[in-house]
Amino acid sequence: MKIFKLFVFINFFVIMLFANAFTEEYAKDVKERTLTLPHCDKPIGVISAKSFKCKAAACQGGRISFGSGFSVEVTPQALGDGLADMLVTALANTGCFKVVERAALEEIKEELELMGVTPKQTLKAADFIITGAVTALEMKGSGAGGGGFVIPLPWKFGGGLKLGKSKAHIALDMRIVRVKDAEILVAKTVEGKSERWKFGVAGGGLFGSTVGGGWFEAFKNTPLEEATRDLIARAVTLIVEELKAQSPEVTVGEKKITYGEKGEIVKEETGGLKRPSIEFSHYKNIIWSENFENCKYIPTTVKILKGYGECVEFKGNKWVATTKGEIIFEKEISNFDPLKNWALEYKIYFGKEGDDFYKYVHVFIGKEGSPINVLIKAFYNHSQFSGQSIPNEAGLPDDLGGKLVKIGLKKEGEIVHLFINDVRTLSLPVDTVAIRGLPKKIFVKLHGQDIGKGSYALITDLKLSQD
What we know:
Elements: H1 2-27, E1 33-40, E2 45-49, E3 53-54, E4 59-60, E5 63-65, E6 71-72, H2 76-93, E7 97-99, H3 102-114, E8 128-140, E9 150-151, E10 167-178, E11 183-193, H4 204-207, H5 213-218, H6 223-243, E12 252-259, E13 265-271, E14 285-290, E15 303-306, E16 309-314, E17 317-322, E18 325-332, E19 342-350, E20 360-365, E21 373-377, E22 384-385, E23 388-389, E24 404-412, E25 415-420, E26 423-429, H7 432-435, E27 441-448, E28 457-466
Parallel strand pairs: 2-7, 2-8, 3-8, 6-9
Antiparallel strand pairs: 1-12, 4-5, 5-6, 8-10, 10-11, 12-13, 14-28, 15-18, 16-17, 17-28, 18-27, 19-24, 19-28, 20-21, 20-27, 21-22, 22-23, 24-25, 25-26
Helix pairs in contact: 2-6
């Protein structure tokens, strides 16, 4: 009996020795950590997250096990609940979303069930629901011996447990569902890795000091804590990037948070707007291209619906030009499907004379009145993309007279991006119901006052591609 007690005492002493020594080693290297996250001027919508399932090999029954050397008596349910709570807390702290907590969502559901209301109606409390599963959960390291041991929860002896020079990895298969129509807007995998942080203390200001529950208590100051925080930070950035187009009026910037050695916020900076960098490019199938190179007097490769236009040479290219007033033409492309992913580009030019308000190029997808259209006026401040004012990201002058401008439209899923001179200026959501059944056409209106007096509009180099 004495031998057994001595054995237990020695094992306990060894665990405590490793816990304290490695925690100190792990946390002392870095004194501050700066994290950059999105920040919004107003909420995109209301969001909630359901508890994540754990499908990783480490989730075994009622505990998390990292092999024969290390297992933890924390349930996969605690992992799923903790991650969901951390994620909605982090999203709320960006200012980009109002949140409905997971527990509150369950309470609402229970109340409605008692009232005889179907559970599906609880989803009306949120605009977006995040669901998913943990698909990878790994911690590799050395320094605690190979015999293996179990850490019970709660871990009452203080500090964290660092298994020598460990590395941790966690991955989440995440889906974002739009509640109003149950459509999956995002289905992507997000990964968290400890080596990206190299930071042994918590960033409580972002995730909250208590969220994560038993999950975080089990891995305080360990690589797995870092990997989890890395996962949440990357998930937050992805969610904001993917959903901001649902509310185009929201301005997305960035917030820089610097944490001190004990997890306290040392400095917080908001600003430095950082819009996503997207380059215009065509899809692999070019289904229409027109540069009017064979046009001698009037265009014959497009159908003129109204007015008169001429083919002119300018800057080494052939262009269709207004002569007096308006010209309207269209081009039918038999294999064009506005519902698919496509890209359209063209060049325009305005004469220097006349009233800028009456010189414009208006391009529609499908037909006049289509919800996808671009109106560029020589008086640039009055230009619009699908009825929305266009930010001057391309740095154009107010008067476009004498300026060559390149326009690009690119549809990606339910988003259409507008590019001006290869700079993305605006991205808008597409109403798929509204564009369903649109004609397979490109519809163009140009207006100038009098070509003889230097007031005209030109267009050329139209190219349409499709995925």
